[in-house]
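Quick question: what would this complex look like in 3D?
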Amino acid sequence: MKRFGWRFWSCLVALGLLAATLFQPRIVLPRPAHRYLVVIDITQSMNARDYHVPGWPGDRLGFTKASVERALLALPCGSEAALAVFAHKNAYLLLAPLEVCEHGAALRSALRAIDWRSAWAGDSHIAYGLFDALKMAATLDAVLVFLTDGHQVPAAIKDPVFRGKPGRAGGFLVGVGGPAPVPIPRLDLEGRATGFWRKTDLPHPIHSPRFRRQAERDRSGLLLSHRDENRLRRLADLTGLHYHPLNHPESLADRLRQAPAAKKRPVAVDLRPWFGFTALVLAFAALV
Amino acid sequence: MTDLGLSHPLWLLAWPLTLALLRYPGRKGAPYPAMAWLPVDPLSRKIDRLRRWLAWAFLSCLILALAGPYLKEQKVARLGTGAHIVLTIDRSSSMNEDFSGYLSGNAKDSKSAAARKLLLRFVEQRRQDLFAMVAFSTAPVHILPLTQDRVAVRAAVEAIDRRGRGVTNIAPGLLMALEEFRDRPVTGARVILLVSDGGTHIDQDTQERIRQRFRDVGARLYWIYLRNPRSISVLHPPKRNLSETTTPEYFLHRYFQTLGVPYRVFEADDPESLAAAIDTVDRLENRPLRYFETIPRRDLSAYLYGLGLILGLPLLLWNALEIRQWFAPKR
């Protein structure tokens, strides 16, 4: 006759596993993890106010930042995010990829510090910026999330030739703003509104056959801006990015979280739930 | 209570299973012919009830631990002794030029790559300090507010050797860096660590404003000057041909000397300069400083596993004490 029955042994193993959890068992496994390069347009059209979601900022840049913040919070731990801003023709890297849980606080304070006044030029050449950002994403081994309203200034510039593989990039082109044209506030360096941008504020178009498209335009009145879906969809098709209109912050968070992670990266997997689960089964068997 | 959350709340659905404990005895029955004959033993009843509740608490503990309770991220007051350092970094196009100081070894490295190496070392050695980061070219960019998250600071520093754009416009960068200290209690030495290849003219009004701000917030200025071989040394300037257009860095140096706050320049091509810069920051007197930091959410399941272990031990003892057979089997 054995001294102890199976109930005792399973209870003992369960307790042993529980004791093991106290040593924080971890194993490094390749797991699918996201790594995003978030590029935010900080040109002045992003100051236009056309969001009306209660409890969220009304201006495009504020709404974008809040949405990205929400999306970063929703990413599973082990995912990484890099931050960059876009103005003129380039993306400007602010933060190299950073893990979103452990360094989430710093990542979000950096995100909140993004300001339209950091733009190094007033123009915004969307296609140039997007292609530059794609190159940056490739060097960082990250998936691009490019957030812009698609408002191009000057309007009639010739788009550059896309030199990557068309339709291959993967990533997101997020269209910011509303479908209806709204005026763009003109802010001073302290952030106070001093009126709206007018078409006459733009440099005078050159009258030549080559620039006819711009010359024909109406040259008076307010400078209006809307989410330029045509341009954005065309660029998304060309590069292979997924176009995503930003209407509500939750939708972006879901989209980024549910996107299949491009690569497996070594992530430290916590073994405690496995230990705990086995202990639970054993203990249940032993005690019932 | 709103600070608590569960990362896998679905585990709670397993909780009703624990109620089975109150129904089933959890041990082998010992067949005995005449149970009714035995008197009621209140003590045994109590012990049995205690054991069941203990088992129930044990299993509940495990299920709750599996559900992954955590404390949401919150601000905590911390006490530190480090300096507050705002890394103010030049990211203008001139930083793309070659730098042939000691750090690079070969002249192929750009100045920004040299600055990156240098700052990574600096950040590595100053473990107590709070860092913020401002980059400037034509316009200043506020990259990272003051934080003690070293990995985040490293990530910000690692981003600087990307291709720089625009002109060197130091004044707005300095003003933004000074802004970082505004409305904060002075609790540690304040340092603005300017990393730049110099070469800019600051107009008289802005010079006055910067001087005023420096005095208001009581910040020190350390300038790590990235010199390329053709430009002059600001510490040992040539005797002739000094003018604002050809050697603006010398005049910038002269202007910084008039700020009225402690100021030093370190020339990065001198092997000892980085060590000297770190030493200088080391010697700064720091009062213990209180600050608030947002700490990431904290996993609480470890406590529940520990509690489960404690609750489980008496149950194990109970099991060990169990008499599994009333009579010794016949051989």
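Answer marked as accepted. The two ends of chain B are 62 Å apart (CA to CA).
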